[in-house]
Amino acid sequence: MTTVRILAPKGELRRWHRKLFDALTRDGARVCFEWRTGPKQELSVFLLDELERQLLARRCENLLDRETRPDGLPQWTGPADLVIDLTGQPMPAAAAVFPVYCGVAGEDACNAMLLDGAPPRIGLAKKEGERIVIFSEAEIALEQPHILRSGREAVASRLITLIRALVRNGRAQTNASQAREAPRRALAASFLAKSLARRVASRVGRLVAHEGHWRIGWRRLSCAADATQACLAWPNKAQWTWLDDDRRRYYADPFLFEKDGVVHVFCEEYPYATGKAVISWFPLDERGAPAQPPRVILEADCHLSYPLLFQRDGEIWMMPESSGSHSLAIYRADPFPEKWTLHSVLVEGFDISDATIFESDERWWITAATREDDGSSWDCLSLFVAESPFGAWRRCGDGPVLIDATAARPAGNVFRRGDALWRPAQDCSAGYGSGLSLCRIEGVDERGLRQSVEKRLGPPPGINALGVHTLNAEGGFETIDICGWRRK
């Protein structure tokens, strides 16, 4: 049994510290606390936090809330196998593991990273003499980057994930390949010299005035090599057709399926009035235009999206996302394309998003975004394996195989380019669905998925959009979705 001693700020224990204790204890570790003096909070950060509470009416519990039961946590009584300094001091304790934010230790560094808009990269590090050596890193997702408190909560949840992996395995399961020395630089605190009022007004203004509005489009390919999947780039002068919408709903996550010479489009339809997405369908005519308006063909008690389709055993199957049910189900066309019958539940007990199935080395694999430790589903990729697409499915490892907001969450079908398998992934580093990463799969087995990002793509040239987060091609067409703004 691994013994872990956590150095925590006296009188400033937070809910995420308790959650970490509970998680490590469930994992089989013996955990105790030692109270240390924490850093003094900057007045500007305190005022911003209070302003967010008032303007945003955030009444739900937050991992940054004070822990009301600190007396129930065991205190340090002896030596430990691992010491973790979570006090937030810029000079952590000797011989302790501590968090770093863009390579810098301390709570101020965390706040500076979030407020300055730097890529949110966190890690675990130790001091070796005068050096700080980072041995585990992850680029995390910020679902609400304009809210400081939300960003700090996202950091806390991912620190739980990294620390659990460290305690379980002696190393963190992240995308860091080797330990490296942290850069020698001063604390990034430029936000203290800038106008806090202007920053807050900008952030709150974006929050209350707009929300994302997705649209789907497609283009006819001149040949197989014309697909973005083949050339890893958008063509300069592509002719895109965009699905009309009445601005009372959005359409996203388009998938194509060709049958009997007809190309069918399946997508998520999200009516703003109901706040619950369904799966809709429409066919393309010979000109590449919608042969009829989108029609709802599948709905459930929870949100449905990402309608991935494949053919097997002479049948057509759909595996839509239903993360609200904490499961992944598969449906059979009965008949195609307008009626679908539930066949079975493939995976249960996971908040699983954008599940993408593919075959490799005579086994079947599912890559999917999962919500780990109450954090974001944008930055954690889990891997599942089975001998058949119908199960039995088992998770590879006891945690995510990748934590990377730039290239984790799936963004469409796995495709073949030359002799290699490739996967489009969402690049959420600048917000949800801000871009795509085209990733070459270097290897996949029960130890995990290894990939290299070969190209990053924003929206196609000439299109006024803030993001793109799905890419598929089939039947001589390529389809994407783009994000814009819709006034509330």
TrEMBL record:
Organism in which the protein naturally occurs: Methylocystis parvus
InterPro entries: GINT1_N, Glyco_hydro_beta-prop_sf
Residues of the Glucosamine inositolphosphorylceramide transferase 1 N-terminal domain: 250-447
Protein name (database record): Glucosamine inositolphosphorylceramide transferase 1 N-terminal domain-containing protein
